[in-house]
Amino acid sequence: MNAFTGFTPETIDFLWELRMNNNKEWMAENRERYQRVLKEPFDALTKELRERFLEGKKDLQMDASISRINRDVRFSKDKSPYKARKWMVLKEPRMTSQQWSGRPVFYFELMPERFEYGMGFYEGRPAYMQAFRKKVDAAPEIFQRLAEEAAAQKEFALYGEDYKRPMGKGGYSPEVMAWYGKKTFGLTASYEIGEILFQPELVDQVVAGWEKILPMYRYLREIEG
Question: Mapping DSSP to helix (H, G, I), strand (E, B) and coil, where does residue 148 land?
């Protein structure tokens, strides 16, 4: 596999065109283009992100999963056959998509209009979120520090749907309650398409970002639910 040297403007053109021509006939005509401008550089990026991020971290055993271009339309009202986006996750090893979707992962995602990376859940499941709140309740000062660090940095924003009713007995700081009262959560950095996307230094930016939120990941990874 070639080293990641950056995506190209044609990568973004391809994603826009796929969004506007989401059909099997168009993809059949552009299959080689998909391989060259999107799949191959994305595979190379994923390989370098995993190697760079895990270097020297003996406590982290993670493998990578990359999204397919085909959509599963069996249970969807939207019958568009392809995804006009591509993502990867770093997850706990040997987990199926059904298993890791309820566990914290690191991710990178490319869309026609922007790219994002961060850490969070594909699906925050009630049992896990309940176990998370119990862990916070058992030692609030530990999560207080992590929540303050997350709130102080400017690169990542906290996301996730809040419960309609307040959770817990109250008394926690706003930084803690921002996490405590959510059905699911994560930290995401979002950028418009720019020059960094077309440079090998994209790896440096994503890895440096993941390093900032690694302490929160380690806290969440220990939770069973």
Answer: helix
